[in-house]
Amino acid sequence: MQVIASYTKMEDAHLAVSMLQGSGVEAWLRDEATANLYWLYSNAIGGVKVEVADEDVERAREILELPKEASGLLKCPKCDSENIKLRQMNLLFALGLIFLSLILPHRKNKADCLDCGESFEV
Description:
Blueprint: E1 2-7, H1 10-22, E2 27-30, H2 32-37, E3 48-52, H3 57-64, E4 84-86, H4 91-99, E5 110-113, E6 119-121
Antiparallel strand pairs: 1-3, 2-3, 4-5, 5-6
């Protein structure tokens, strides 16, 4: 079995599995229960993962229209580099806000290019 995709939202993972199973490819979810019960740890464990059998990997990627490799999902709009880092909230900072009973700030997903320094929204 091989993980072909990872999702932060549970509904996206279920949609991917439904698409695969509807196309005749057996697919399973990994870490669904952990992400459901401990939603704060979802990013730490890599989200909810979609698994398929080794012989179905290429077909599953075609169905989900995923790239051949995990790299290259994001490209810098300025220099076309794939050396991208997503910005994430520090877990200790988030726990501190929760402990102080403050609402977590909703922020847009941003990424930074490690080659040219460009920041852009994802």
